[in-house]
Amino acid sequence: MKLNIRRAEPGEGRRTAELVKAVFAVMQKDQKIWFSIDAIDLEAKRIDSGEDMAFLAEDGDEGNRLAGVFIVEFPGDRGDNMGHYAGLSGEQLQQVAHMDTAAVLPDYRGQKLQRRLMEAAEAELRQQGYRYLMCTVHPENPYSRENILSLGYEKVWEGLKYGGKPREVMLKTI
Predict the structure, then answer these.
(1) C-alpha distances in angstroms, 95 versus 20, 81, 98, 166, 170?
(2) Rounded distance between C-alpha atoms, residue 132 and residue 148, angstroms
(3) Measured in Å, how far apart are the chain's first and last C-alpha atoms?
(4) Taking the complete model, does pTM exceed 0.85, yes or no?
(5) Where are the domains of the chain?
(6) Is residue 137 a contact partner of residue 57, using CB atoms and an 8 Å limit?
(7) What is the pLDDT of residues 112-171, one digit of tens each?
(8) What CATH class has 3-173?
(9) I want to staple 68 with a disulfide (CB 3.0 to 4.6 A). Which of 38, 61, 104, 140 is the partner?
(10) 142 CB contacts (<8 Å, ≥6 apart)?
């Protein structure tokens, strides 16, 4: 299996969102709380406009079938900037990127795709001058949590987000 990782082009937002929805649809009922896809259609528009970005993992052996996606959000001055959880302010908040959504189809799990997609995003964010990478993870999601911790993220807050879902807010300074 030949998996290629690349940054999504403007216009690939819908393709990204459809994969996220497909992954959510096949998740076990008790695990759906691990995933928040309420704003995925807005994310697709932001990817298309270049406001946010996504990274795609494609299976070259299957005609570039989409295997996984990773979405990065740039909160800037918005009130939902997770930098507030880490005590960041002013110019620091402008250097925050949200490592937002990771989704991998079941056929492609076990190949560290979430980690590889995050590493690709981190490399580009470092080049763009972002300093603070932040994400959320459900405390009982061992797969995502382990990937995030193994990349050097640390918990800065724990509580309810996204309409009452338990989450840990994680930070990595690059």
Answers:
(1) 26, 10, 10, 26, 15
(2) 14
(3) 32
(4) yes
(5) 3-173
(6) no
(7) 999 999 999 999 999 999 999 999 999 999 989 999 999 999 999 999 998 888 999 999
(8) alpha beta
(9) 104
(10) none
